[in-house]
Design a protein that fits this description.
The chain is of the alpha/beta class and about 350 residues long. The chain contains 16 helices and 14 strands. A three-stranded parallel sheet has the order 7-10-11, with no helix packed on it. Strands 12-13-14 form a three-stranded antiparallel sheet. Strands 1-2 form a two-stranded parallel sheet. The longest helix is centred in the middle third of the chain and has 23 residues.
C-alpha cells in the first residue's frame, strides 16, 4: 500500500507524514485528518468532543493550524455544531469527511461532505425498518432493502458527486462465531501484530458475538448480501466509490485488508479492473492527486505493484507482489519480507 488516508490523526501521524516526505522513514504517502470531531458526549472516549458551534469552530481552526490535511466529523454532533464545523472548514479550505450526524442530515451531508465513510449511515434511507430487527443489525443492513429507495439514494449520491468509501471488510469482521475468529487470528498479517492487539480484538468480537442466537446469525448473513447489493447499485448508478478498510477495527489488519476489500468489490459486481480503479485512480481523484499518481504515466510518481500473476484474472494476485516501487524506489520480495519481519513482535 503506497498511499494512505488516515481518518483519525494524531501528532505522531503528522510526524510520520513529514518523515516520509523527507525520505527519512520508509512508508506510504500519508494524508491525515486530525482527531475525530464528535458531539458531547462523544461516541468514543478519544474522540474530540465539542458541545456547541463555538467549540466546533475552535476545533477545526486548531486542526487547520496544526497542519492536518482534512477534518473528520462523527455521529454525535448536534446540527448546530455540525454546520459550524463545516463552515469553518470551508473557510479554511479544508475538506470534510466522515459520518452523517445521527440527527439524520443526510441531504445536508451530501452537499457539505467530500466523503461519507462506511455504509451504515445510509441504512435508514434504503431499508424497510421493522421492529423485529434490532438497532445494531439495522446499521449493518440486516433489514430488507427497499429497491426504489436504494435507486433514489444512488442517483442522488451520483448527482452530488459525494465519495463513498464502503469499508465492507470492517462489517464483515465485526461479529463472527469463535471458529471463524480463530481462522482470522491465524492469518499472517494478524499474526504479525503484537499479541496485545490480537487479545483486544478477540475480546471485542467475542464479547458481543457470545450473545447472538441462530436468528441473529441469519440476520448477519442477510446483511452481508445487502451490503454487496448496495455497493453494486451505487456503482451501477455512477456513485464515486473509493477503497478503504477502517483498520484497525477488529481483525481488519493494516495493509492486508486493502486486498481483502478488493475481493469484496469484485464480489459486489465490479470487474477486477473496476475494483483496481477504485483502489488506484479513484483515490488519486478523491485526494486531488491525479496529476501526480493513480495511473502509470511519464512524469507521475512511481508507485507500482509488480505482480507475478494477472489481477484482471484473479484479483487476489495483488496480495502477493513480486516487488513494489515506492516513490521510485524498488523493493524486491526479500526486502519486503525483511521490512515485515522487522515489525513483527518477538
Amino acid at each position: 500500500v503506497t498511499t494512505v488516508r488516515s481518518m483519525d490523526g494524531r501528532p505522531f501521524i503528522l510526524d510520520w507524514r513529514e518523515r516520509v516526505r523527507a525520505g527519512t522513514l520508509v512508508g506510504p504517502r500519508i494524508l491525515t485528518a486530525g482527531p475525530i470531531i464528535d458531539g458531547s458526549p462523544p461516541f468514543r472516549s478519544d474522540n474530540l468532543a465539542v458541545a456547541d458551534p463555538e467549540s466546533a469552530r475552535a476545533a477545526v481552526a486548531g486542526q487547520a493550524a496544526r497542519g492536518y490535511d482534512f477534518i473528520k466529523l462523527y455521529s454525535n454532533l448536534s446540527p448546530a455544531a455540525y454546520r459550524a464545523a463545516v463552515a469553518e472548514a470551508q473557510a479554511r479550505r479544508l475538506r470534510v469527511a466522515g459520518h452523517v450526524p445521527r440527527t439524520g442530515q443526510l441531504e445536508e451531508a451530501l452537499s457539505a461532505q467530500w466523503s461519507i465513510e462506511h455504509l451504515g449511515d445510509f441504512a435508514g434511507a434504503v431499508t424497510t425498518q421493522r421492529p423485529s430487527v434490532p438497532p445494531w443489525a439495522r446499521r449493518a443492513f440486516a433489514a430488507s432493502l427497499n429497491p426504489e429507495r436504494l435507486e433514489a439514494l444512488a442517483r442522488r449520491l451520483a448527482e452530488a458527486g459525494t465519495w463513498v468509501v464502503p469499508t465492507m471488510i470492517q462489517q464483515d469482521r465485526w461479529l463472527a462465531p469463535a471458529s471463524r475468529v480463530e481462522q482470522w487470528a491465524a492469518e499472517p498479517a494478524i499474526q504479525a501484530l503484537p499479541s496485545s492487539v490480537l487479545t483486544q480484538w478477540r475480546s471485542g468480537v467475542d464479547r458481543f458475538s457470545s450473545r447472538l442466537d441462530a436468528d441473529d446469525w441469519a440476520l448477519l448473513e442477510r446483511a452481508r448480501g445487502n451490503r454487496l447489493a448496495v455497493v453494486r447499485a451505487m456503482y451501477a448508478r455512477g456513485v464515486r466509490i473509493a477503497l478503504g478498510t477502517d483498520t484497525p477495527n477488529p481483525f481488519v489488519a493494516m495493509g492486508a485488508s486493502v486486498h481483502q476489500e478488493l475481493a469484496n468489490l469484485v464480489e459486489a459486481g465490479m470487474t477486477p479492473y473496476q475494483a483496481l480503479h477504485a483502489a488506484t485512480v479513484a483515490p488519486a481523484l478523491m485526494l486531488d492527486l491525479q496529476t501526480e499518481q493513480g495511473t502509470v504515466e511519464v512524469g507521475k510518481r512511481a508507485d507500482l505493484l509488480v505482480l507475478s500473476a494477472n489481477p484482471l484474472v484473479d484479483i487476489t494476485a495483488t496480495a502477493s507482489p513480486w516487488g513494489v516501487v515506492l516513490a521510485g524506489r524498488w523493493f524486491d520480495s526479500p526486502e519486503l519480507e525483511a521490512l515485515s519481519s522487522a515489525l513483527r513482535p518477538n
